Amino acid sequence: MIDRRLIQNFDWAIFIVMVVLSVIGVMTIYSATRPLLDAEQQPFYIKQLYWLLLSFIFFIPVIAIDYRWFIRFAYVFFAGGVVLLIVVLAVGRTGMGAQRWIPLGPLSFQPSEFFKISFILAISRYFADIEHKGLLGFREVLKMAAIFTILPFILVFKQPDLGTAMLLVFVFLSIIIISGTKKKLLVVAIIIAFISLPFVGNVFWDGLKDYQKKRIVAFIDPDSDPRGTSYHINQSKVSIGSGGIIGKGYLKSTQAHLRFLPERHTDFIFSVFAEEWGFLGSVFLFLLYLFIILRGLDTAKKARDTEGRFLALGVTCMLSFYFVINVGMTLGMVPVVGVPLPFMSYGGTALLSNLLAVGILINVRMRRFLLFY
Questions:
Q1: Is the pLDDT higher at 327 or at 93?
Q2: Cα separation of 335 and 250, whole Å?
Q3: C-beta of residue 51 within 8 angstroms of C-beta of residue 352
Q4: Tens-digit pLDDT profile for residues 99-158
Q5: Is the peptide bond before 35 cis (omega within 30 degrees of 0)?
């Protein structure tokens, strides 16, 4: 029998905001991709609607099952995720220069999108297990990095999926800092980072694909190749700037409809939205994302156990990273790294993983009143 308190404490506010963002995403995808150049191709917005419906089907058990059950099997999920990352490098489908997808009948899924959820589950359980040890020292941090971060980072980086690889490091470091570390460790870490920066930079640079290197060069010098690598970001700026204060109106974004803006339904979907709805529409969109982020932090604060607190923090850090990097990417403030805008960018696996992440937030918040024994 379902505890009525769970239903009463369901977070309708964050659920409604998530639905609103998803609907805005479908509308913007429709606007950005019409008309299709291939008449026989299924419209992107229809595919996104299918994934949205599928995501809500999986969303229900995620909020219905106590999150402590997911924590109990966190290491199993993590190990399974690592295996899938290895499989995708061996037999994964290649598209647009990246090997990130595993075919599954008529569909294909991106293991790295699901792995980030299992990654957050695993480090949340680990932090809960070592909570009694107090502030983290150098050995604990190094052990955590070796167990949870280094191998997944390499596997994701090799796909290549630079955005998700950076996300894993960001979430890992964020939770470590928030959880509490010794001041001496932070000082030593900063010194080591400065000393090793040239060496790490060279290794990192050599590991990048040619198109990734060109993106970084274009970020540093946007005028270096205006008709080539810099074309994406320059057209994105034009699209956002032409929206003005109130925008051109829905279905009236010329940069998207005339095909000047590349990747307009995925990485640069915010540019299409900003052109159609302008500065005021963008502010409204930012407030929706800000609400989710603040709600996530509040959920972490009110969680009744360590596992719930770190789960909420991990999910909030993940969504914050994607939002900041994607918008910064479209504005030319960070290099183009292929990071989608949560709930809005076209991509079924990304949409599913983001809805499941919010489902975890709601799960933790619903059960904040329970006494655990």
A1: 327
A2: 28
A3: yes
A4: 777 877 666 778 888 899 999 999 989 888 876 565 666 777 778 888 888 899 989 888
A5: yes
Average pLDDT over residues 194-218: 61
CB 202 within 8 A of CB 188: no
Residue for token pair 């809960």: 128
Query: Given this model, what pLDDT does residue 373 score?
Result: 40
Vertex 161: Cα angle to 40 and 36 (nearest 5): 15
Domain ranges of the chain: 4-34+44-366
Q: From 22, 17, 27, 23, select the one nearest 273 (Cα to Cα).
A: 27
Alpha helices in the chain (DSSP H): 4-8, 12-33, 44-64, 67-72, 74-91, 111-129, 138-144, 150-157, 162-179, 183-207, 210-220, 231-242, 254-257, 269-302, 306-330, 348-366
Tell me the torsion sign for CA atoms 239, 242, 243, 245: positive
Other beta carbons within 10 Å of 329: 26
Given a contact cutoff of 8 angstroms between Cβ atoms, the answer to whether 62 and 360 are in contact is yes
Coil, strand, or helix at residue 104?
strand
CA distance 68 to 43: 40
Residues 6+ apart with CB under 8 A from 217: 224, 225, 229
pTM (two decimals):
0.89
In whole angstroms, give the CA distance from residue 316 to residue 294. 8
Question: What share of the chain in percent tops pLDDT 70?
Answer: 78
Is there a contact between 258 and 264 (Cβ–Cβ < 8 Å)? no
The 10s digit of each residue's pLDDT in 3-14 is: 666 677 888 999
Which residue, among 166, 122, 150, has the nearest Cα to 322 in the 3D structure? 166
Q: CA-CA distance, 9 to 97, in Å (whole number)? A: 45
Q: The dihedral of CA 293, 115, 72, 150: what is its sign?
A: negative
Contact 236, 229 (CB under 8 A): no
8 A C-beta contact, residue 214 and residue 230: no
Which residue, among 335, 303, 165, has the nearest Cα to 236 in the 3D structure?
335
Torsion of CA 234, 266, 172, 81, to 10 degrees: -150
